Structures are given as C-alpha cells and as structure tokens.
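Collaborator request, handled under Task 6.
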Amino acid sequence: MKTKIKEFVLINIGMIMVSAGMYFFLMPNNLATGGANGLAIVINKFIGGLSVGWIMIIINLFLFVIAFVIIGKSFGGKSVYASFGVSGIIIVFQKFIPIKNPLTGDIFLELVFGILISGIGMAIVFNQNASTGGTDILAKILNKYFHINLGKGVLMCDLIITIMAAFAFGIKLSLYAMLGVIINGYVIDNIIDGINVCKEVTIISKNSHKIRKYIREDLEKTCTIYNGVGDFSNENKEVLVVILGRREFITLKKFINSVDKDAFITVNNIYEAFGDGFKSLTH
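Structure tokens returned to the collaborator:
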C-alpha cells in the first residue's frame, strides 16, 4: 500500500513539473519540443479556438485508442492517467494563471529552464513505469511493426514535430525546438540514472564477520561471500560483495572505518538492480 501511495505521489509531482515547464516556459515562446504538447502548440497556431491543453487531450485520446487497438493494454493505466493529467493541469493553469507573453523575453533561457523542469518531471513519471503519452505511443507502434528502437522512435517523432513547427513559427523557433528535443533526451536519461543509481561494494577485511553482521542486522541487506587467497600473503580471505543505496553506502563506509581502517574497498556505480530488496523485474 505504501509503495502504491508513493508511486501515486511521485507521478503527480512529475505531472506538475512537466505541466509547469511547458506552460510557463515553452508554450509562451511557441517552442514545440516534440510530444503531444509540441504537436498541440503547432495545431493551436492554426486552430486558435481550442487551448493547447484541450488539443493535447484530443491528441492523447486519439493515440490511446490507436494504442489499445494496435498494441493492446501494455501502455498501462498509469500512462493514461499521467497523459490526461498533464493536459488537465495545463488547462487549470490557463484558467487561473493566464500568460500572454514570455516571462523574460530570452528565448534560450526559457528553453533551457522549460526543458530542465519538464524533463525532470518526465524522468520521475518514467521511473514509476508510466509515461506522459504522445510520441511514446507512436514509438511503441514503430517498434512493433518496424523494430525501431523505442528511443530512436521517440526522437524520430519529435523531430518530425519540430519540422512541422518550422511551417507554423519559422526556422528559428523550429531549430530552438529541435535543440530542446536533444537536451530533453539527455536530461531524462541522466535524471533516471541518478535516481536509480546504487553502489556495488566489494570489501576485503580482517573483520569481515563484523561487517557481514552489520550489513545483515543494521542495514537489513545481504551480501555475497567469495573465498579468495592473497597473492603476496597466501592467506585465505573473505571477499564480500553487496549492493547498497548511496546513503547506506556512506553509513557502511563509516562503520568499516571504525572496525578496520586498513580494509580494502572498491565501489562501482550500478544504474539498475532487480530482485530481492530491489525493483521487481515485472515493475
């Protein structure tokens, strides 16, 4: 239950960030940086009667119907919720915080901040095994029928939208939007890596039994034990390997320092870990 509540809260935080980045920074500058929102900005240029938020709802509704028919239910209820949630939040912003002009007049500054805020929001949503819809759905269709990598599929769809933006807003804004698409990909990948990063710690110590006990009882983790032999000393040694979160690693490092200042430790970054104590493979 706690996991579900945490997931729900994080998805909503991500949705608000995505909506804020789009509404306050990208939309006032007509920066169509891909996705359903980018397409909605382009369409809004030609159909002024509908707000960007409502156009996004129509686009996502159309895409989810196609996804349901072609892909099946694999896109998940959370993605449906997040997609329409972002559109709904933008509609609320438009009603209660109307913006007619860009905040600063510096298009590059607003592009960077818009992409950073919305990109971090998307990364949070993606990390909960959901998506904000739009070109993600088209990418899944391309993957199913043409075996195109999902990341490349999203990039292809987004670049097509930025080309459409050239006809709506001119080459300059289209190039800014294309730059935004590229930055957005890097932001999402790096944020997700940062959220999921764990530490693989290898420990060789004369007090390995104390360290094992601390890992098991205080950190509530388990380690793998290998039997090794020192090349110079020819002594048998226990080699402990454990995967921990960043905070747990800091705590363990302090404990090891207190029981064996000469312990040998190596640390590697692990960007995803599945199984007991970590994410489920079916998540």
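The cover message to the collaborator said: "The CA atoms of residues 11 and 125 lie 5 Å apart. Residues 171-196 form the longest helix (26 residues). Please let us know whether this matches your experimental observations."
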